[in-house]
Amino acid sequence: MEGVEEEKIMAVEEGLSIEAAEATAHQISHDPWYQVGFVLTTGINSAYVLGYSGSIMVSLGWVAGAVGLVLAAAISLYANCLIARLHEVGGKRHIRYRDLAGHIYGRKMYALTWALQYINLFMINTGYIILAGQALKAVYVLYSNDGDLKLPYCIIIAGTVCALFAFGIPHLSALRVWLGFSTLFSFIYIIIAIVLSARDGIKSPPRDYNIPGSKESKIFTTIGACASLVFAYNTGMLPEIQATVKPPVIKNMEKALWFQFTIGGLPLYAVTFMGYWAYGSSTSGYLLNNVTGPVWVKTAANIAAFLQTVIALHIFASPMYEYLDTRYGRGKGDAFSFHNLSFRVFVRGGYLTVNTFVAALLPFLGDFMSLTGALSTFPLTFVLANHMYLMVKKNKMSSLQKAWHWLNVCGFSLLAAAATIAAVRLIVVDSRTYHLFADL
């Protein structure tokens, strides 16, 4: 690969020397499992959690919503462990999702997987910029009602700050101390949202927990909420995250996954259930718009949500950055040399400019979560994971195990198709209700 020193990163696991299948400009085999666990936890406890009361619980209700969140976590842990165990196939470490798919299926599947992953990460990044813009707008509204600073302007500001952060963080492993800040910011807005929601719920009269809408719309919103359920837990970039972990790679990645889906998931449950309990079917798509309390407390929560979103976006943009840096950008030398820094400014700035434009154009956050889950999270995390595991391990499986994986492949394929239709319908309906560049 041009401009990149050919790296052979050796990892010793179970007595075997296993090298990365491809060169990369970013660091691999560098991080302890707990740092990777915090990367994963940062993803699931990002400011997106402030939207799950409205996008999941309002659409499903108490029983289906609570069961769905727990069931989605269990299924997601299982599917992600399958992917983690396929990290070393054919005597090579596959440090990108597309590399793994290409090794198993061939060049066409390599391209299709890359396209699905790009869509997934692009939509997630766009949603993060919408979230950051909403947080800024919420702070402004706390102090002024003149309406001069509209949501599209806030989204532009948010996109600019995200770009500035991306210029200074060369690769995923370099986040390090920022993961600590991210965890702190997450605790701030989650704790504030829980406390203020609980106070509002205690003071409020009985809430309405009925699922809103007509019979037809309830069907589509339920399907869309199922896509949001899987979106809540999955990154669509597990091999890229696993590439950063120190040997033994598979065992350490499984430790990180168990951390994510046990301790790491508790804040998500707490804020989602408390928000829905406090406001019922009137819960908004951004929980901090519902809560009442001291202005300075709400300001702190929104600023923390904004800052955490800037950090979390970098995680989900890192596969794109890695591809661009490896293929076109960084060679030898300091990551902050003039050449490498100017390359990041030009390329990452351009990528985030497109994200920011789409975010300002269609700022419908709940719809983005549904569409992202349908288009890419279902296929990448569930359909492909089970089928790839079948392809690699089929000679070691019983007939019952094969039937189980085929059931997952077929079932999640049907769910992906239904969820895509539901998500597109939601976006069309909202596009009719709200004009482009809407000030929601």
Give structural notes.
The chain has 440 residues and is mainly alpha-helical. 70% of the residues lie in helices and 3% in strands. Strands 1-2-4-3 form a four-stranded mixed beta sheet, with no helix packed on it. A hairpin with a 2-residue loop joins strand 1 and strand 2 (16-20). Helix 1 packs parallel to helix 6 (177-203) and helix 6 (177-203) runs antiparallel to helix 11 (295-327). Mean pLDDT is 85; it is low at 1-17.
Task: Write a short abstract of this structure.
The chain has 440 residues and is mainly alpha-helical.
Compute the number of strand runs.
4
Low-confidence stretches: 1-17
Main sheet: strands, sense, barrel: 4 strands, mixed
Q: What percent strand?
A: under 5%
Strand order, largest beta sheet: 1-2-4-3
- C-alpha Rg, in Å? 21 Å
What is the terminal separation in angstroms?
45 Å
| SSE run | EEHHEEHHHHHHHHHHHH
Could you tell me the mean pLDDT?
85
The oligomeric state of the chains shown is single chain
Based on CA inertia axes, which overall geometry fits? globular
> Helicity, in percent?
over 70%
Number of helices: 14
Q: Helix/strand-derived class?
A: mainly alpha
Domain Amino acid transporter transmembrane: 33-424
Pfam families: Aa_trans
InterPro entries: AA_transpt_TM
Subcellular location: Membrane
